[in-house]
Write a structure and sequence with these properties.
Blueprint: H1 8-20, H2 25-35, H3 37-53
């Protein structure tokens, strides 16, 4: 739905309405995710692992042995 803005007052009213409207549900989910201590801890651990294994030499991470099938 296209809203017509005729005056500066109409534009201010539109901005005010947008600022006071609740955010969409997807944005609320992101906010809850980024406020969760467990999510922040997991993100920190992942970032440290990336820095430790991928930033220096460019070699791929070794696969865990329990995921590899036996050879032969």
């Amino acid at each position: 739905m296209q809203l017509k803005v005729a005056t500066a007052a109409d534009l201010l009213a539109l901005f005010s309405a947008k600022a006071t409207a609740p955010p969409p549900e997807s944005s609320q989910m992101f906010v809850r995710h980024f406020q969760c201590k467990e999510s922040l801890k997991a993100t920190h651990c992942l970032t440290e692992a990336m820095d430790r294994y991928a930033a220096n030499d460019g070699d791929p991470l070794p696969a865990p042995t329990e995921l590899l099938p036996p050879l032969g």
